[in-house]
Every structure is written in structure tokens, then in C-alpha cells.
Amino acid sequence: MKRGIRLASFLLVFICLSLALLTAWQIWFSRERAIRELNVANLNLVQALDNYTEGVIRQSELVLNDLSERVQGADFSPQEQERIRRLLQQQTQVLGLANAIVIYDTQGDRLLASSSAPQSGLNAADRAFFIHHRDDPSTDIFIGPTIKSRITGDWVFTVSRRLNDADGGFAGAVAVTLGVEHFLHFYGGLDLGEHGSMSLSSSAGLLLFRQPFREQDVGLDWSDSPVLQILREKHEGTSIQTSRIDGIERLYAFRRNERLPLITVIAVGRAEALAAWRRDAELFAALILLLLLAIGVIGQRLILDIRRRSRMEQQLLSAREELLDANARLEVLASQDALTGLANRRSFDQTLEVEIRRAQRRGSPLSLMLLDIDLFKRYNDRYGHVAGDACLRAVADVLRQCMRRPGDLAARYGGEELAVILPNVDSEGAQTVARTFLQALEQRHLAHQGSPFQRVTVSAGLASLIPSAEDSSAQAVALIRSADQALYRAKSNGRNRLECAEAPRRDASGGDSASHPG
Length: 518
Ligand SMILES: Nc1nc2c(ncn2[C@@H]2O[C@H](COP(=O)(O)OP(=O)(O)OP(=O)(O)O)[C@@H](O)[C@H]2O)c(=O)[nH]1
What we know:
Layout: H1 2-71, H2 78-95, E1 98-104, E2 110-113, H3 128-135, E3 142-148, E4 155-164, E5 170-179, H4 180-188, E6 197-202, E7 207-211, H5 226-233, E8 236-242, E9 249-256, E10 262-269, H6 270-273, H7 275-335, H8 345-362, E11 366-373, H9 376-383, H10 385-402, E12 409-414, E13 417-423, H11 427-444, E14 458-465, H12 472-492, E15 498-500
Helix pairs in contact: 1-2, 1-7, 8-12, 9-10, 10-11
The structure holds guanosine-5'-triphosphate.
Guanosine-5'-triphosphate binds near residues 372, 388 and 392.
């Protein structure tokens, strides 16, 4: 039963642990899946933004190339200037996102602009794009860092191109200034949640602008970010990071443009993005917890029930043991003589029959000895009945000690008469046992003033037989009768002696009487 309890406990723990592990695995797996799905969606969005930005820059590049063609070699007469200014205004409207288109001379002074801003004090010689074109003979476009427009005060970044003279020398630059505001407005139309962000940076890791916009973030150098490491090997990727700008943990998706030196990044707040997953996971975990609790309670009940049953079984077992013990005690009591502790008459009768049948089967001898305490009436009269009882017990003790084999049975035959059944013992062997007993009694020397021997003596009658196949009860009666007759002779011949039964003879009923098999 203890094994049953151990098994039930093991099963319970196993089920609970398996459920808990499966739940943990399921929650972790669904989190990974949620992140994967978010990353896919974010990568799609970042690609769309990258395409949009590339489109805007490409448009600016077309305008710049067109203007360069038209401007190179122009004499910049007042009529020519007016024509080019109108052209600049048209192109600005075409571009839509452009704040202004400006042509600079070799000193960085504004030659012409799409807007009618004051001409003085608007030198761009210190601007990165101008320095780049002055020093680099390439006529490729250059995307400059985000700056504050000196004309409008707006945050802009420039897409510019070098102008060459007829000899290929530096003749100034033409620049499109793209308003950050336009991009922020476009980005703002996309819902990335409360903690979402979008940004455009140079491929060197310098921030052009970021939504949500903060002036202090403009030009932020994040070139040491692991994102840039990833983008050196592939043109897009995702990661989970904590923002150095606001310390919020986000899921990032980023993409390096394949043709332009630009990086687009979008990010969603991790906690916000995983809120749905967390809600589902908490609900699921709560349900499993309830299930575990139910299993735990049922399991505990089960174990308690097994324990209770085990206890009851144990009690039943011990009750059965006690009953068996009581039965055994009763059996002993039922077969024992209360005064002497020897077998009683009932037990003697049963044993004699059993032993005769056994001797019949085996063809072995069987001896019976009847013993009678001599002049016991006188003993009682002289010493009293209680002393008589004690004397009987003492004689029985001596007799018991003379019984050596387990099969020997000493019994109280009745009154002061004792009997001994000696299975598998012939007359000779039985005589030895009888003499041993008589000697032991003599040595015990129980005083009996009323006896001519001055001590308690016993007369013994012995009969032996090898049982025939006839009725065992009749043979038992005959054996007792023979032993009794021998006992009578012992009494008649002076007491304190052993007499053996006569040779076998057939009695009137036809059965064999006791004989001297030895
Ligand atoms: N104290 C005591 N006496 C018993 C018990 N059973 C029988 N007696 C007595 O034993 C005596 C037997 O006496 P008798 O049958 O006359 O024989 P006896 O005096 O032994 O004389 P013999 O047998 O001829 O030697 C009787 O007085 C019984 O009362 C017993 O359990 N206790």
C-alpha cells in the first residue's frame, strides 16, 4: 500500500511538473512567435519607409541633375536669373517636400534661390555639403546632415550636387533643402503605438531626424550601436534594445538603403507590442494554475484515501492476527487441563485416534501408559485438597520433563490418573520411558506420610500395539483397556511399579487387543 501511495505521489508530481513545463514552454513559444510576427511586420514597414525616402531623394537628384545641366555655362544676366528662379520655383513645387532649391557660387554665396529670401548674410561656405562639393570633384549627389535653415529657421537636410565650369573646375553647388517637418508629418500618420519611433540616419550612424522629434537628438552619433554592426553584413535586420535616447526597451527593425547612404529605423515599445501576448499568457497561466490546483486537491484526496484504506487494512490485519491469537489460545485452553497444564481428556482421546491411524498407515508401533498416584485419597486426607492439587501438578511436571519426542503426549486422564501416548514407540521403548519417569519421581521425593513408601509413588500400566487395518476407535478402546488392566495389576501387586499388558488376543468384538510388539 505504501508503494501505492508512493506511486500516486509520483504520478501527481509528474503530472503537475509536466503541465507546468508545458505551460512555460507554450508561453515562451508564443512569445517568440509574437516577436517573430512583429519583426516581420516591422521589416515590411521599414522597407516601405526606405522606399519612400529613396523616392524623395531620387526625385531631388533628378531635379539637381536637370538644374545643373541648365545652369552650367549660364551668364546669369537679370533675364537669365529670372528664368532660372522661375524654374527653381517650379521644381520646388514638383518636389513637394522641398523647402527650397538654392544655387551657390564658388564662395558659398547664394546666387539664386526658389524662395525670395534676403540675399545678404546667407553664405553656405561653412555648410558640410558646400565643403564636400568644393573639395570633391565628383558630381554625385551628397546628402548632408540635418541643419537649421538660415532662411526659414526650419530643420532641414540637404541633397546637393557640385557645379562645374567648362574646364571641370569648381563653379559652386546646387542644393535641395528637404524639410524634416514633411517627413515627420508623413511618419506621424503611421501608428506605432505610444512608445513607437521612426528615424532616418546617415549610413555612418548620424541621426538626421527621429519621430518623436527632439532638437537635441539631431546629429546624434550612434555609430557604436550593434545595429550598425549588423548592417555592415546585411542590409536589414531586427533586434531588441534599450533606447539610449529615452531608455525604453523596443523591438527594432532597420534597413540600410542599397543605393543611398541612408538607414531607416522603426521601433515599437516592447511592453506595448507584447501586451496582447502577455494578457493571453497570464490568462493561460491562470487557467493552468487553477487546473494544477484542482489536480493537487484531487490528488491529495486520493492519497489521503489510499492512506485511510491502508490504515483500515492494517487495522483489519492486526484484528485478524489478534483473532487468530485468541483462537490459538482458546484452542490451547480447550485442549489443556487447567490444573496440570497437561493435555486434557478430550485432547487425549483425539490424539490417540489420530496416532492409531498414523501408525496404521505407517505400520509403526504405538504405546500407551496409564499412571495412577498411589493412595492419593490418603494424601488428600492428610495434607488437604489444595496440597493434593499441588502434588498432582508436581507429578505432572516430572512426567512432562520425561517426554523427549515432540510426538509424545502426556495427558490428565481423569482425577489423579495420568496417561502418556508414545507414537512410534514399542513396548520396550515405552518401558524405558516409564522407568525413567518412576526414577525421576523417586528422585523428586514428594513426601507422603500416609504411604508405606513415605513418598508419592505412581503405579503404571503399559500397553503397546502395531495397529491393524481394523477400526481405529475399537483399537483405541482395546489399547486403553489393556493399559488399564496392566495398571490394575500394578496396584494389585503392591503399587509403585510398572506392569505391561499381556500378549495380544482377540476380544469378543473381534478386534485386536493391545499387544507387546517389542
Ligand atoms: N486434591 C485432588 N484430589 C483428587 C483430584 N482428583 C481426584 N482426587 C482424589 O483422589 C482420590 C482417589 O482415591 P482412590 O480412587 O480411592 O484411590 P487412592 O486413594 O489413590 O488409592 P489407590 O488408587 O488404590 O492407590 C480421591 O480421594 C479423589 O478425591 C484432584 O484433582 N485433586
